[in-house]
Every structure is written in structure tokens, then in C-alpha cells.
Amino acid sequence: MNLLARRSLIVAAVATLLGGCATAQGNWPAPPNPPETGNTMSWKTHCVGRVMISLPEDRPLIWTASIDVGQVKRIPALSEQQFWDGVELVRQRYLSQKHDDAPSRLAHFEKVGNTAALVFYYDNPASFWGPVLERFVYLDREHAYEFLTKGIVTKGQAPTAALFQPLVQQYAPVLSRIHPLAPGQFPGRDGLCIDSAVVSGDTGRNAKAVLVSEIAYGTRLGIAYLENNYKVELLSGYEELKFDEDHAKNPMGYDGPDAFKDFKVLRKRERTLAGIAGQEFVTRTQRNDGQVFYSMQWTVKGALDGGVLKPRIVVHLNTPQTATDTKGKPYDKLPPEPELLKLWDYALSTFKWREGALPDGQQIQAVN
Questions:
Q1: DSSP secondary-structure letter at 191?
Q2: Where are the alpha helices (DSSP H) in the chain?
Q3: DSSP 8-state secondary structure symbol assigned to residue 32
């Protein structure tokens, strides 16, 4: 089973996941203006990681998160009975599948109180190495979550309750530190914001929260917040810009219709948002076929082994590089460049640090 492409098993089990992903509809968003201008577009403030930013209210949102070395997915609304029926279906799925050297591919199952369960299973029916862990937690009808962690370290040992008990003790605690948030509610405590919840305490290595809004078909505005960065490549904003510049030089001499005809840096500057210093760049690229696209980014590089005090933060806006999607559907036409820049500047102006996001009055340090 391809875990990267799979749907959430528990969601599929209770048949509550709606098919497909919504795409942006309607006119381009614009920054709010005084009422007399006639622009009634509203923007909504979101807590992402330990910061806050506003995005157009009526556009599709895509959340991704990683907490406690697990990919986190919020499960659509369901009853407690549906939740446990789904968990049982997941357990039975692996219990019914054969393993070459064990009774089944189910390595271990553990229910934690009345709110959570852990399912360890072998993705490879011929090996005991690197079992997969799925953690499920139910807080209320609107707040249930699944954590997916691959490659659990068991050194290839055969499954026993004694082998997995320390792993349960290691991976279960975070499930009790997820605090639900009602629509429009902001945390009154420290922690990392994910989709409709805040996670307090240790968030684990390479923790992240990402929120992206498709503000027009093909154009996305978003923010990524990453902490406890460990053994990953961290590039500054200017280093990423240098990568784009080198790519635009077309060292292989390709001259097809999708080759870059013109690449221009519209902005490259230090920019401080809410007291946090970062690097901003804006580029405009024209292809041989006439397609023009933009890349806008504000970045705080962050540091390896910097814990929660030296996070990586990226705010970005990217327009489509092609005129149509892979099925031939046209992407929304871009507004004039000044309007696009005005929208970008407004989004950045809403960025702010969430007071109390770190315990004991700690402050983050911007590393670039």
C-alpha cells in the first residue's frame, strides 16, 4: 500500500471524507478597503504554528502538520461511535492480513483511555523492520485527529507486548496535549497551532504547521512554521532566490516554449514583520510562450538544533507557471502587477507573533 498516496483509513472506514479538494471560485481577493470603495472582501486571521496571519475568508484552505514525528490529519466531523468503529476497522484490516513470520501484519494495538488508540502494523509482510504507527485521538465531534509515523525503530525484532510497551509510552503522551479550538477562537496558552487545535508541550523533531489558501485558481498564498529543526536543509530567503536566478539562466541552453525568456527580481530586501527580521524577495518570470508568473517570499531561515526558539518561518505567494492545469482548464487571469503586490503587502502586514505562544515568556530569535 502506498502510504504517501493513501487516504486516511479511519476516514474511509466511516465514509465521512468528501471526494475531491475544493478550488478557488469567484473574483480575485483584494485587501480590505474603506466601505465607501465598495470592496467588501473580508480576511480572516488564523493561528499557524506560533504566529498569526490573515487570509481571504472565502477561499479553500489546505492544512498540513507534523507533530511528534507524525503526519497529522484532522478527521472530518464524526460521532464518537463512528470514530471507534473506524479504529476497529483499521485494526481488523491488519489483523486479517498475513505476515510471513507472524500471525498477521498487526504488530500491536493499544487503546489509551476512552479517547485514543495506537495501531502498529507492518507495511512489508516479509519483514519486521520499521513498522508503521497510526495514532488516533477523539476530542469531540469536530476534533478528531490521525497521526501517521513510518519507520518505527524495533531493530527487526518479532512483535511482542513487551517490545511495544515502551513505544506506547513514548508516542501516546502527545495525544493528551491536543487542545481543541472553536471556530474563530485563539489559544489562551502556549503551544503550536494546527488545524483547529493547539498542541502544548514538546512537539518533537521537525515539527511544522502549514496553511495554504488558494486565493484564485492556480495561485496560492500560504505560511509555513517549522521548529525543532533537525538534519534538514535550511536555506535563507536570499539563498532560495539565488537558486531561482541560477535556474533562470538556463545553463543547458533549452529554448522550448516553456523556457524562461526573462527573469527579473522586483524586490530583494530585509523586511521586519512584527519585530521579526526576515528576507523578502519578489520575482517576475516570462516564458517563451508568453506566460508570466510571480514568486513572492518572506523567510526567516531558522537554525538546526535551535529548538522552539529559532524556528523557520516562510510566507509565500506563487502564481501558476502555465496558462492551464494538466487537464486543460485555464487558471485564473492575474490582476495587474501593482494590485498583486498590494495584496502581498497586505497579507504581510497582518503577520504577528502570538503572545503567550512560548512558555515562561520566552522569545524567538530570528536567524537568517
A1: S
A2: 9-14, 80-95, 161-171, 237-248, 337-349
A3: -
pLDDT band at 35 (very low <50, low <70, confident <90, very high): very low
pLDDT in tens, 93-145: 999 999 999 999 999 999 999 999 999 999 999 999 999 999 999 999 999 99
- Supply 355's cell numbers: 503572545
- pLDDT tens column, 342-362: 999 999 999 999 999 998 889
CB atoms within 10 A of CB 242: 13
Q: Report the amino acid identity of residue 61.
A: L
Distance CA 309, CA 143 (A): 28
C-alpha dihedral sign at 8, 9, 15, 19: positive
Nearest-angstrom CA–CA distance, 363 and 357: 9
**CB–CB of 308/358 below 8 Å?**
yes
Read off the pLDDT of each residue in 56-75 and give the average, rounded to a whole number: 96
At 305 the pLDDT is: 93
Cell reading at 332: 485564473
Check residue 15 and give its pLDDT: 37
Element (H, E) at 234: none
Closest C-alpha to 138, from 84, 177, 193, 72? 84
Q: How many CB atoms lie within 10 A of CB 289?
A: 12
b vs e for 176-209, b when ≥16 Cβ sit within 10 Å of the residue's Cβ? ebbeebeeeeebeebbbbbbbbbbbeebbeebbb
Query: For the chain, how many helices (H) and strands (E)?
Result: 5, 18
What is the residue whose three cell numbers read 485494526?
91
For the CA atoms of the chain, what is the radius of gyration?
A: 23
Q: What pLDDT was estimated at residue 1?
A: 37
The letter for the amino acid at 282 is V
Residue 79 has pLDDT above 70, yes or no: yes
Q: Is 345 helix (H, G, I), strand (E, B) or coil?
A: helix
Question: pTM of the entire structure?
Answer: 0.91
DSSP for 72-99?
EEEEPS--HHHHHHHHHHHHHHHHTS-B
DSSP-derived secondary structure for 242-260: HHHHHHHT-TT---STTSE
Secondary structure letter of residue 336 according to DSSP:
P
